[in-house]
Specification:
By secondary structure, the protein is α/β, with parallel strands linked by helices. Helix content is 35%, strand content 19%. The strands form two sheets. It has a nine-stranded mixed beta sheet, with helices on both faces. A six-stranded parallel beta sheet has the order 3-2-1-4-5-6, with helices on one face. The structure holds nicotinamide-adenine-dinucleotide. Nicotinamide-adenine-dinucleotide binds next to helix 1. The site of nicotinamide-adenine-dinucleotide has 22 residues, from helix 1.
Length: 484
């Protein structure tokens, strides 16, 4: 099987914050991989723009080092780095001042796609948008890409949307949620809407509940001061887990096109019930051995910010009434694993008697590690001795099913940046979607900030606080194991 590389038009891509962590770790290695795949068009240019004074040669040396660090050597053999680096340029710029803007304006070429990646803190988005406009650098065909966090509540997200809207039309704004760029997440849509098998069962009549888990083993590390003002709800649920929930719960869009998909996602967010306080469990990891507690890492002995959250969410519409969505995400957990599990109901009647036990079909969609899907089906245990049933997986791990190319699926950032160049907004969040998501999360956050309740403590390396298990047990359900 030969994967198709769809050509894109040539472009000038300016990366504001081009010397930062995200640019060095994700954006430029991702672009290099597209170059390797032969997708970088002739004459395409990537212009780093950041505060540091350096020339293009200095920038190329910096990015060479980054790619050597973040792209494994065996994945660099087939495309010399020099060819890629030759496409890089650099301009030192002051986002809030005047320095560098005239030079950037001179560098831009007419008649190529112009894209501007705002890989800087959100406090600079307004200043960048204004200067791009005032210096005539952005035209009506230009696109801007903005990173998370998109606001910290409805008010700040609304303000950010209005600021960007002063200079850019919504069709020019690409709000990144890199979860949407993951191969499995898109495959979820292919499985749902490309087969007749699943969609008829995709509702509360056949689905008992859905679990979405994003578990990390790392603590808050060096991000302590940022994270402590945010917490798991703002950092993970409002964006990534909500997006996953939307793709699972949405009605079939009429076409796989930006507004068809985003309209359906928005309807899901608007159908979410407020979550009852009893259906929310917040946790903070404790100290263990040599590793400090959340509060040590945050350097805030009285912190009440959650590093773990579990929620039972109801989607109030005809399709999902009565089928809850359980979401959980946290740091310093047992394993690094992200999964969506669609747990179907029991067969209405067992012809095999009680001794055959209880069996359920579960569709598991793994986002990391080993992206892939598994459908658990029930079969007869081989051999004589009556009808004993066992559950076996129908496995579709991409790496196995698709051969070497399954292992080499593009990283989320690669795909999303190429979508920006192509002008395809399907996998990017629209402004109203982001605001609706904040409108849903804000009251929960305000409620726990007001009552000042401390998050429950949990052991590092565990599955989170005991209370999260109880949330499930109350309904006679259990979380799936967190395993790599
Ligand atoms: P960083 O601190 O490592 O880099 C910031 C970059 O912005 C640097 O290149 C710096 O020179 C530039 N910059 C800062 N102030 C400037 C100014 N006044 N004028 C011009 N340039 C200026 O940050 P980062 O980790 O790369 O994150 C960038 C953005 O991406 C942030 O909004 C962050 O929340 C978001 N983000 C980062 C990650 C990640 O893994 N690092 C993940 C998701 C989202």
């Amino acid at each position: 099987m030969v994967s198709r590389v769809i050509p894109v038009d040539t472009f000038d891509l300016v990366i504001f914050g081009g010397t930062g962590d995200l640019a060095r770790r994700k954006i430029l290695p991702g672009l290099y991989r597209r170059f390797q795949a032969g997708q970088m068009p002739e004459g395409a240019r990537i212009i780093g723009a950041a505060r540091s004074e350096m020339d293009a040669e200095g920038y190329r040396a910096m990015i060479r080092e980054a790619i050597e660090e973040f792209v494994p050597e065996e994945k660099r053999v087939n495309a010399p780095l020099d060819g890629f680096l030759a496409q890089l340029d650099y301009v030192a710029i002051d986002a809030t001042g005047t320095g560098g803007w005239d030079r950037l304006a001179e560098m831009m070429r007419a008649d190529v796609v112009r894209a501007f990646y705002f890989s800087v803190g959100p406090a600079l988005f307004g200043a960048l948008a204004e200067r791009l406009h005032d210096h005539g650098i952005a035209n009506e065909q230009s696109r801007i890409v903005v990173e998370k966090p998109f606001g910290r509540d409805l008010e700040s997200a609304g303000k950010l949307n209005r600021t960007l809207a002063q200079h850019f039309d919504e069709t020019q704004i690409y709000r990144i949620d890199h979860y949407l760029g993951k191969e499995t997440v898109q495959n979820l849509m292919a499985v749902r809407f490309g087969n007749v098998l699943f969609e008829p069962l995709w509702n509360s009549q056949y689905v008992d509940h859905i679990q979405i888990t994003v578990a990390e083993t790392v603590g808050i590390g060096g991000r302590g001061s940022y994270y402590d003002k945010s917490g798991a709800m703002r950092d993970m649920v409002q964006n990534h887990l909500m997006q996953l929930l939307c793709l699972i719960a949405m009605e079939p869009p009429s076409r796989f096109e930006p507004d068809s998909v985003r309209d359906e996602k928005l309807k899901v967010i608007r159908a979410l019930d407020p979550v009852r306080p009893d259906d929310i469990v917040r946790g903070q990891y404790a100290a263990s051995g040599d590793t400090g507690s959340y509060r040590d890492d945050a350097d805030n002995p009285d912190s009440r910010t959650e590093s773990f959250i579990a929620l039972k969410v109801n989607v109030s519409n005809w399709r999902w009434a009565g089928t809850p969505f359980y979401l959980r995400t946290g740091k310093r957990l047992k394993a690094r694993a992200s999964e969506i599990a669609v747990v179907f109901k029991d067969a209405p009647h067992s012809i095999f008697g009680e001794e055959a036990g209880r069996h359920r079909n579960i569709l598991s969609i793994r986002l990391q590690p080993n992206e892939g899907m598994t459908l658990g089906v029930t079969i007869k245990e081989p051999g004589p001795g009556g009808m004993r049933l066992i559950d076996v997986p129908l496995d579709m791990t991409f790496a196995d099913a698709l051969g070497p190319e399954g292992e080499d699926v593009p990283d989320a950032y690669e795909r999303l940046i190429m979508d920006v160049i192509r002008g395809n907004q399907t996998l990017f969040m629209r402004g109203d979607e982001v605001e609706a998501a904040w409108a849903w999360t804000d009251p929960m956050i305000e409620a726990w900030e007001e009552d000042g309740r401390r998050p429950c403590s949990y052991e590092p390396g565990s599955t989170g606080p005991e209370e999260a298990q109880i949330l499930m047990h109350r309904a006679g359900r259990r979380w799936r194991e967190i395993k790599t």
